[in-house]
Write the structure tokens for this entry.
Amino acid sequence: MIISRTPLRVSFCGGGTDIDGFSMANPNGGRVVSLAIDRYVYVTINKRFDDSIRVSYSSAENVDSVDDVQHDLVREAMRLTGLESGVEVVTIADIPGRGTGLGSSSSVTVGLLNAMHAFNGHEASKEQLAEEACRIEIDVLGAPIGRQDQYAASFGGVNSISFSTEGVSVSPIPVGGGRAEEISEKFSLVYTGLTRSASEVLSGSPEDPDERQSRLIEIRSQADDAARMVEDGDLESLGSLLNDAWVSKRATSASVSNETIDDLYERVMGIGAKGAKLLGAGAGGFLLVYGDEGLRAELSRQLPAENRIIPLGIDSSGSVIVHRTGP
């Protein structure tokens, strides 16, 4: 039996510039500043007694051939790693469901690949896991998504990730000297109560392509600022930058926000937040919120129970194998 553990991620700035259509055309490429969080996707793979395949997630499948597996990420990960039959695959998540804005689909893909390679007796590098996850999601399945989530999930930690015609480059940002604890104390995740498909949001046609391109260039510049702020430990400026990032992101498409999200943003700011933005493609998921140490308790007191609040703990390991037993 093999069990992999793969973190979800939070992006401070740069989301959208990791999509090939922008990063391959923009002279400066794309850039995202993000961190892996201590909330995880777990994938278990065990050998079955017979040659059938069982896949368990929010649904359960029992099939005889990998071609019959309906879970597209499981199916394509099995094909890529050469697993054809006789296995049981189970996925469990700390924050279940797609559409959270935390990169959960890519965390599943990376976790599946890590577990399947280990099941086959191979140790895949973090770069290999990220590249293969991109291949499955973007090249094989045709999802209109970027490449930040796969690398954040694979590598873990706090990173500046660059995207260009030369490929993807991951530059870790040190957060020692109590900075990791300060990030966890002052940044929180606030659930909007809504979920959505990132692919559906990203595949929607923008109202004004020129305006979208202009805003993405702004977002790319904000990522440069965010990297410098994290490196310098200037969390106050980083928190304020979230507001600018949200204004730029909302302008990329009308489908990014809605009345529920706008109302929650205004309420969070009214309670005392110094900065906030919606994570992921838009239309649902979590707000990333910055404020003084007492803000989280005040948010918990004033917001309804459906707006669950989570501290921003950092994962430093990335995707790892946490359990391994023999056949």
Residues 179-311 form a domain with the Alpha-Beta Plaits fold (CATH 3.30.70.890).
